[in-house]
Amino acid sequence: MTTEIIKILIVEDEWKIARFLQMELEHEGFKTAIEANGQRALERIIQEAFGLVLLDVMLPEMNGIEVCKRVRELSEIPIIMVTAKDEIEDKVVGLDTGADDYLTKPFAIQELLARIRAALRKHKPAAAPCVENALRIKNLVLFPSRYQAKVAEELIDLTKKEYDLLEYLVRNKHVVLDRQHILQKVWGYEYLGDTNVVDVYIRYLRSKIDERFGEKYIHTVRGVGYVVKD
Ligand code: CA
């Protein structure tokens, strides 16, 4: 048995259910947090170090199935999906999207605790999430530790310089970056070429990402430079 206290994120928009689960889980010795909004739950799962997620399906802003799919692009964190009885077809979808297990409301708390223990056993505690550093914009996900970028689970073939440029743009999303600035940050102060190289590499990135996946990420700001937007 590990002495580490596991923190569980309860994603549930019905406050009474969320509070009930929180009390029961804390009674069992887990730490917990509650999140009622699907989009925010996704952000928290990516940013905070939870050990397991209890994920309701019907949620405001982003449903649990979508949250699960997106988390799975980044992390192997155990996820137990929870839904109401009449949404039974969600079960198939839920497991397809990579949930570890599935529970139908109403459920006995002992049943939930057994499923939680089983899901935690399956996952080694040492399996650190490779998620802290991942950067995301829409369907584009960057993994700085591996110099990799994916769109919808598909790895994009990028040169080191293309990756560097993309990461720099993504890290500064919504900030308009001029060519000189990009050149200094990505190519370095000692680079002696002209700023056209930025335009050339932006073209490479657009053909590999925007054009290939039919979604606009890199926007031109006329007379200034470029900006990546959600
Ligand atoms: Ca709900």
Helices, by number, come to: 8
Structural class by sheet pairing and helices: alpha/beta
**How large a portion of the residues is in β-strands, by DSSP E?**
15-25%
Distance between the termini: 43 Å
Relative helix content:
40-55%
Shape call: elongated
Bound molecules: calcium ion
Cross-sheet strand order for the largest sheet: 2-1-3-4-5
Largest sheet: 5 strands, parallel
Strands, total number: 12
Rg on CA atoms, Å:
21 Å
Order of helices and strands: EHEHEHEHEHEEEEHEHHEE
Whole-number average pLDDT? 86
Low-confidence stretches: none
Describe what you observe in this structure:
- Helix content is about 40%, strand content about 20%.
- It contains 8 helices and 12 strands.
- It has helices at about 15-25, 40-45, 65-70, 90-95, 110-120, 160-170, 180-185, 195-215, and strands spanning about 5-10, 30-35, 50-55, 80-85, 100-105, 135, 140-145, 150, 155, 175-180, 220, 225-230.
- The strands form 3 sheets. Strands 2-1-3-4-5 form a 5-stranded parallel sheet, sandwiched between helices. A 4-stranded antiparallel sheet has the order 6-7-8-9, covered by helices on one side. The chain has a 3-stranded antiparallel sheet with strand order 10-12-11.
- Strand 4, helix 4 and strand 5 form a beta-alpha-beta unit.
- The longest helix is centred in the last third of the chain and has 18 residues, at about 195-215.
- The mean pLDDT is about 85.
Short description:
The chain is an alpha/beta fold and 230 residues long. The chain has eight helices and twelve strands. Helix 6 packs across helix 7 and helix 6 packs across helix 8.
